[in-house]
Amino acid sequence: MGRSSTPGEGTRPRVRHAGQLGWDDGLYEDGKDQAPIPDGSGDEAGGGRSAGGGGGDRAAGPGGRRGRPRRAGRTKKRRILRWIAFSLAFVILGTGAAGYLWYEHLNGKIRKGARSAGNSAAKKTAPNAAGQTPLNILMIGSDSRNSAENLKLGGSKESVGGTPLADVQMLLHVSADRKNASVVSIPRDTRVDIPACKNPDTGETYAATNGIINETLRGGPGCTLDTWEKLTGVYIDHWMMVDFAGVVDMADAVGGAWVCVKQNVNDVPKPGVPGGSHLRLTAGKHKIKGEDALKWLRTRHAFASDIGRSQAQHMYLNSVLRELKSQDAFTDSGRLVNLAETAVGSLQVSDEIGTVKKLFDLGMQLKNVPLDKMNMLTMPRIQDPEDPDAHVLPKPGAAEKLWALIRDDESLDPKDRAKAKKKTPAGPKAAAPASLGVTVVNGTSGDGQAPTQGRAAEVQNLLKAKGFTEAGTSPDPASARTTEVAYPKSSGAQGRSDALSLAKALSMPTSAVKESPDGSGLTLTVGSDWRTGSTFPKAAADDSDPLEDTESVNGAKSDECMDVYWPYRQM
Question: How, if at all, do strands 205-206 and 197-198 pair?
Answer without folding.
Answer: antiparallel
